[in-house]
């Protein structure tokens, strides 16, 4: 595994680059030579046939006036014989080493491309990126498109800025680092996607490379995947403007993303809160952030860093390792919450943390009871598929929710009960016709069956009262003490929910992940 270079003010001298011909292979009727390039701890392989070497040599002779006789001559007869190939491997390696030694500072563009510096080497990567943005940057900014970039490219720009070299060492104005900085200052939509395993033909573990995002000054939306959140610097610089943030396959905690500086302080509090006790730091909040996707990570708890995102409306924590729901009482504006495919087994007291929630996804957890949902009076959409709910009585906990319109209970043990749909719908009483169960609209036939079930249930209750006068008298006294509240009525303090749930503006198949 390749290790990254020093990420900070103290840097070692730039190591010399090497190129070795480590073998060859026969492709169709010609031989391809395998070149291993080494740049510090980074290595990669490039494959070229002899004619590619010849083309390179012709350009270098014309552009840089190198010795015509430096390249081993062509051979027509027996060009693929083993002895000739082995000799040519050695000669071509000497040729490449001489070229690298002849240009120790700035590698000629044609040689850099031949050795794939524009894919793997810091100066080559930044030069290629600068030229791309010189040609297309204004068009990309004008179209308002998402700009996709890799961690290796960001690492290269970060390293280049720390080297303190001229921004245009090659002398080609198109490759000036200033084109990158001008573009990043104005970009609004950014996507950073790493790769799993080695990058390309190299030993570079791209997802482990450190990089700095503080060069971006105007970001509204950021999507990061397959990077190490612990190695991402400068994201907090976008707090004033960032509205949508997605970090997937990258984090082990929420703090790593939302408050990376917390590790430096014993006690901290969000800016604007009343300070109690000893506080060593006051951290600014993410003042513009309304949508946060931290799905598909290795997050085990909802920690106190949520205090820093008070304006969040859409929160996706699906596909993590959460055991309990905690700290969400700080999110007064939260309306959409995805906790699917975690390890939740209890929902007790959930209403004290989710006062205004409209959409709640709890699919793929370990839930057997729904008792914690009975006071989520603003809830409109509820997904409970792929859990462990067995008893129909559990549905009564949600049957009296006044705004609930969409419910999914697929792939729970109770979903195989005979007449499952009508028995579930019956729990909603007079609102049965308003509820869409398992993405299927309720039919008139089902509503007729629901009415029959309700009549049977009512008859059972009457019969039970008549056969037990003492119980009947006790119930009558309780009923006379308090007025009856219909299951479909909403508590007077709760405002009616809006008819439709607003959706965030997303890119590239959506920030909020799969639902």
From TrEMBL:
Protein localization: Cell membrane; Cytoplasm; Early endosome; Recycling endosome
Record flagged with keyword Coiled coil: yes
Matching CDD domains: PX_IRAS (cd06875)
Pfam (any one): PX
Ranges annotated as biased composition (Polar residues): 505-515
Main subcellular localisation: membrane
Biased composition (Basic and acidic residues): 463-478
InterPro entries: Leu-rich_rpt, Leu-rich_rpt_4, Leu-rich_rpt_typical-subtyp, LRR_dom_sf, Nischarin_PX, PX_dom, PX_dom_sf
GO molecular function, one term: phosphatidylinositol binding
Region (Disordered): 463-515
The PX domain, residue ranges: 11-127
Entry keyword Transcription: no
Keywords tagged on the record: Apoptosis, Cell membrane, Coiled coil, Cytoplasm, Endosome, Leucine-rich repeat, Membrane, Phosphoprotein, Receptor, Repeat
GO cellular component: early endosome; plasma membrane; recycling endosome
Classification via PROSITE patterns: LRR (PS51450), PX (PS50195)
One BP annotation, GO: apoptotic process
Record's subunit section: Homooligomer. Interacts with GRB2. Interacts with PIK3R1; probably associates with the PI3-kinase complex. Interacts with IRS4. Found in a complex with ITGA5 and PAK1. Found in a complex with LIMK1 and PAK1. Interacts with ITGA5 (via cytoplasmic domain); this interaction is direct. Interacts with PAK1 (via kinase domain); this interaction is direct and is increased upon activation of PAK1. Interacts with LIMK1 (via PDZ and kinase domain); this interaction is direct. Interacts with LIMK2; this interaction depends on LIMK2 activity. Interacts with RAC1 (activated state).
Name of the protein this chain belongs to: Nischarin
Native source species: Rhinopithecus roxellana (Golden snub-nosed monkey)
């Amino acid at each position: 595994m390749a290790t990254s270079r020093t990420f900070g003010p103290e840097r070692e001298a730039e190591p010399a680059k090497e190129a070795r011909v480590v073998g060859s292979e026969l492709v169709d009727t010609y031989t391809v030579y395998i070149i291993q390039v080494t740049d510090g701890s980074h290595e990669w392989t490039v494959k070229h046939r002899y004619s590619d070497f010849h083309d390179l040599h012709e350009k270098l002779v014309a552009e840089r006036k190198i010795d015509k006789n430096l390249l081993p001559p062509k051979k027509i007869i027996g060009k693929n014989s083993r002895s000739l190939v082995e000799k040519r491997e050695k000669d071509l390696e000497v040729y490449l080493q001489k070229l690298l030694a002849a240009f120790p500072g700035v590698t000629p563009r044609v040689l850099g491309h031949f050795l794939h510096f524009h894919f793997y080497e810091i100066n080559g990567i930044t030069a290629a990126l600068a030229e791309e943005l010189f040609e297309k940057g204004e068009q990309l900014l004008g179209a308002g498109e998402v700009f996709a970039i890799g961690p290796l490219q960001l690492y290269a720009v970060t390293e280049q800025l720390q080297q303190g070299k001229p921004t245009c060492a090659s002398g080609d104005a198109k490759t000036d680092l200033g084109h990158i900085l001008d573009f990043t200052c104005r970009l609004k939509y950014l996507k950073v996607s790493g790769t799993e395993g080695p990058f390309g033909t190299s030993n570079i573990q791209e997802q482990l490379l450190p990089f700095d995002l503080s060069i971006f000054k105007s970001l509204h939306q950021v999507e990061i995947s397959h990077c190490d959140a612990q190695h991402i610097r400068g994201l907090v610089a976008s707090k004033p403007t960032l509205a949508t943030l997605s970090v997937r396959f990258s984090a082990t905690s929420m703090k790593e993303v939302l408050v990376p500086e917390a590790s430096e302080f014993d006690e901290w509090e969000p800016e604007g809160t009343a300070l109690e006790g000893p506080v060593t730091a006051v951290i600014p909040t993410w003042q513009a952030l309304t949508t946060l996707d931290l799905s598909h990570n290795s997050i085990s708890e909802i920690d106190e860093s949520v205090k820093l995102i008070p304006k969040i409306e859409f929160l996706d924590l699906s596909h993590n390792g959460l055991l309990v729901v905690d700290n969400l009482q700080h999110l007064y504006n939260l309306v959409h919450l995805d906790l699917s495919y975690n390890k939740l087994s209890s929902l007790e007291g959930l209403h004290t943390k989710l006062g205004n929630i409209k959409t709640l996804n709890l699919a793929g957890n370990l839930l057997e009871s729904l008792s914690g949902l009975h006071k989520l009076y603003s809830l409109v959409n509820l997904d409970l598929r792929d859990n462990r709910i067995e008893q129909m009585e559990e549905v009564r906990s949600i049957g009296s929710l006044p705004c609930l319109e969409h419910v999914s209970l697929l792939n729970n043990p109770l979903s195989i009960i005979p007449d499952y749909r009508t028995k579930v719908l019956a729990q909603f009483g007079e609102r049965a016709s308003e509820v869409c169960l398992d993405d299927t609209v309720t039919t008139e036939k089902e509503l007729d069956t629901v009415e029959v079930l309700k009549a049977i249930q009512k008859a059972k209750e009457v019969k039970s009262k008549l056969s037990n006068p003492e119980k009947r008298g006790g119930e009558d006294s309780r009923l006379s003490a308090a007025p009856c509240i219909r299951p479909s009525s909403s508590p007077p303090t709760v405002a009616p929910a809006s008819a439709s749930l607003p959706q965030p503006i997303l890119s590239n198949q959506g920030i909020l992940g799969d639902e």
